[in-house]
């Protein structure tokens, strides 16, 4: 037994070192393992979330001098890689921040995270105050493996009211109207839609809505449940064809496939009036507020749920996006560390944290949070998001989070090809059918 | 000059000091050979990278990689970037190296200026170029030059061109430095003799400088070719393998499989393929130099 442990350890280290040597190895160290009696917590850096997360930990540490949490913040991609390396080396943090869904399932399959179902049973008060929909991505095989946290983030269709007013046009109420608007904006030298296409998941948001509006939630549902040839559904092909029609009509800003979402250039195109509309996560509101000058204060930002497609089966009240963010407890942590983590969970989304999130333009996943929203200067947007999240009969999780990492990567690479038109709808469906259930 | 017996070229190779090689050998074994073997072992596993025990699956990963329809494309992209960056870098590096080898004070200043790109991190360079080439907020849009307003990174062919350009921009200083050293080793007496025979500067360059640089060219080319196999951060930051997979080289493919798709087995198989290619190319280039390559080129040595 001992020898086997040694072997696995040394090969694991070897692979990590070899792969790390291929690039700049990112933030090294970072204090992965916490001392005894101290739980570690890794999450994403950057505004607006980092300061809220840090604040929550600092308040907890102040109130619990005997059970401290040690936090480390990472950039998005660096975090995913660092976490993967740490899990593979058997040294994950006590509290793992994540998106739930397929990623969480891969931790569950690897026996990396604790089952929290019983704990939620004993602590009904913790569970009952959260949005029920937020538990969907935390639940794997009927068991809850993560604590839903932070904010609800549906994907929203943003638009620039100024640009619409100057052009004498009105926001689209259907897919047909979207296609009609495209030549009108192009004639004025304004891109109809902003898009940070190099990030790939940005393109995916379009497919998520088109699949839902045309075919309803069951079209992607079949893929998710692993039914053979689910991507070849005629309604799926219709959605894929429609998105390529929009690309061919120059619906997206020139050069969209070289723009990254990380740089926030897509939001800049919208608030600088170079693009009329943008389909993006509700978190864009906070980014535009931070970087767009007086754009929001001047009342120029418009927003709506994605419109329906004529003759489509889907309900235009449905939405997609992140029903919450997720905190899991590493199965490798000591009993003491797990206790600290659970205690921390009960302190989450207290009044201070709720108002911190509201200040960033986010809606906390707390039932009745709408009562707190009215006093915010962003009350209109926040009420809109609360309405979308609570009125949606189906709040679908983003595809790349819902699927396993293996299937998600194939999906994203094929979406990139679909949007640069190097493959057509049929080829896309064939490529994707090959990884169903993987 | 060419008659030295084999073995006499390993400077001071008497047994008494060979222990001095041990630290390097130990470091190489620990950080070179062991991880390499680790990757080889992993290529026969179906490890997801998220667990501490590693399930073995025989040849599955190799089968998956070798039958992947995207593999020929990734090989082609890797080869294209390698060939183009060699073709761009070599002539420019030789010219700059020859220019800098002459001894004038102002050239020392220029040499420092030329050297700056090499001191910058690849990620920083890529981020800078990405900002400059942005179709909406970059140099082209800012200055209003129509020529610069291309969709540099959003068009497959242009994106390859940009990658080669940025690679060359960063590494030409390094190779110029190698060539500068090479040129300075050429005995001045050869040029003096050529001048007496009435050869001009261009003739001297082609008949003396270039042939004398043969081994320097081979060394520099080996570094370029083998190094280009592992270009990753630059491509990743600039294009992330896009648009639509146009710049998906083997190294990018390896990263995406390993760290994005949780397929450490196939990713390790690609890593092994990269190592094999690197070895083959390095050996091939060594053969070009002939048997006397390892001998000292110094006069009288």
From TrEMBL, chain A:
For this UniProt record, the keywords arranged alphabetically read as follows:
Signal
Q: Where is the signal peptide?
A: 1-20
Recorded hits in Pfam families, A to Z, give:
SBP_bac_1
Q: Is Magnesium among this UniProt entry's keywords?
A: no
Identify the domain of life. Answer: Bacteria
Q: Does the keyword Lipid metabolism apply?
A: no
Read off the SUPFAM superfamilies from this record. Periplasmic binding protein-like II
Q: What is this protein called?
A: Extracellular solute-binding protein
Tell me which species this is from: Actinoplanes sichuanensis
Q: What is the lineage of its organism?
A: Bacteria, Bacillati, Actinomycetota, Actinomycetes, Micromonosporales
């Amino acid at each position: 037994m001992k020898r086997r442990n040694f072997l696995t350890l040394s090969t694991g280290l070897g692979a990590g070192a070899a792969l790390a040597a291929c690039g700049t190895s990112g933030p090294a160290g970072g204090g992965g393992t916490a001392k005894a009696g101290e739980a570690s917590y890794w999450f994403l850096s950057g505004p607006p979330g980092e300061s809220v997360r840090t604040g929550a930990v600092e308040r907890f540490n102040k109130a619990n001098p005997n059970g401290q949490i040690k936090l480390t913040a990472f950039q998005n991609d660096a975090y995913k890689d660092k976490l993967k390396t740490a899990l593979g080396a058997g040294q994950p943090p006590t509290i793992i921040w994540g998106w739930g869904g397929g990623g969480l399932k891969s931790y569950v399959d690897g026996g990396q995270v604790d089952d929290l179902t019983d704990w939620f049973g004993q602590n009904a008060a913790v569970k009952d105050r959260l949005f029920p929909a937020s538990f969907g991505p935390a639940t794997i095989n009927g068991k809850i493996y993560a604590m839903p946290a932070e904010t609800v983030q549906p994907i929203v269709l943003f638009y620039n009211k100024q640009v619409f007013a100057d052009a004498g046009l009105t926001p689209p109420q259907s897919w047909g109207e979207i296609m009609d608007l495209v030549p009108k904006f192009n004639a004025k030298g304004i891109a109809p839609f902003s898009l940070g296409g190099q990030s790939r998941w940005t393109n995916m948001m379009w497919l998520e809505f088109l699949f839902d509006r045309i075919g309803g939630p069951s079209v992607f549902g079949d893929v998710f449940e692993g039914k053979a040839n689910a991507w070849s559904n005629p309604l799926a092909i219709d959605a894929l064809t429609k998105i390529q029609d929009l690309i061919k009509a120059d619906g997206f800003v020139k050069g969209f496939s070289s723009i990254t979402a990380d740089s926030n250039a897509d939001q800049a195109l919208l608030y600088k009036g170079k693009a009329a509309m943008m389909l993006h996560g509700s978190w864009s509101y906070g980014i535009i507020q931070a970087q767009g000058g007086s754009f929001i204060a001047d009342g120029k930002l418009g927003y709506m749920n994605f419109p329906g497609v004529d003759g489509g089966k889907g309900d235009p009240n449905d939405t997609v996006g992140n029903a919450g963010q997720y905190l899991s407890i590493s199965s490798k942590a000591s009993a003491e560390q797990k206790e600290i983590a659970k205690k921390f969970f009960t302190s989450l989304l207290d009044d201070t944290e709720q108002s911190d999130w509201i200040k960033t333009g986010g809606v906390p996943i707390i039932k009745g949070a709408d009562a707190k929203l009215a006093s915010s200067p962003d009350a209109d947007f926040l009420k809109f998001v609360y309405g979308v999240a609570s009125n949606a009969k189906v709040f679908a999780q983003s595809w790349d989070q819902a699927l396993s990492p293996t299937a998600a990567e194939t999906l994203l690479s094929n979406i990139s090809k679909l949007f640069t038109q190097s493959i057509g709808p049929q080829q896309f469906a064939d490529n994707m059918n090959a990884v169903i259930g993987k | 000059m060419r008659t030295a017996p084999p073995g006499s070229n390993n400077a001071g190779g008497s047994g008494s000091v060979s222990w001095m090689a041990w630290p390097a050998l130990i470091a190489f074994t620990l950080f070179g050979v062991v991880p390499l073997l680790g990757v080889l072992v992993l290529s026969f596993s179906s490890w997801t990278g998220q667990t501490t025990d590693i399930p073995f699956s025989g040849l599955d990963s190799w089968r998956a990689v070798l039958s992947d329809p995207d593999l020929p494309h990734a090989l082609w992209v890797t080869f294209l970037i390698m060939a183009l960056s060699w073709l761009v870098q070599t002539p420019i590096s030789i010219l700059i190296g020859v220019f800098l080898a002459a001894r004038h004070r102002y050239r020392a200043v220029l040499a420092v200026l030329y050297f700056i790109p090499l001191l910058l991190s690849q990620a920083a360079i890529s981020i800078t170029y990405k900002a400059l080439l942005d179709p909406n907020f970059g140099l082209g849009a800012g200055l209003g030059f129509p020529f610069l307003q291309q969709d540099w990174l959003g068009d497959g062919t242009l994106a390859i061109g940009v990658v080669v350009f940025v690679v060359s921009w960063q590494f030409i200083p390094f190779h110029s430095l190698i060539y500068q050293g090479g040129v300075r080793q050429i005995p001045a007496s050869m040029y003096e003799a050529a001048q007496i025979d009435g050869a001009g500067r261009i003739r001297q360059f082609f008949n003396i400088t270039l042939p004398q640089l043969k081994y320097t060219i081979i060394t520099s080319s080996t570094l370029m070719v083998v190094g280009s196999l592992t270009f990753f951060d630059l491509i990743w930051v600039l294009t992330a393998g896009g648009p639509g997979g146009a710049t998906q080289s083997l190294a990018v493919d390896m990263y995406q499989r390993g760290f994005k798709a949780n397929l450490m087995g196939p990713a390790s198989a690609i890593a092994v393929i990269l190592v094999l290619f690197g070895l083959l190319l390095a050996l091939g280039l060594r053969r070009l130099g002939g048997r006397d390559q390892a001998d000292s080129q110094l006069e009288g040595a």
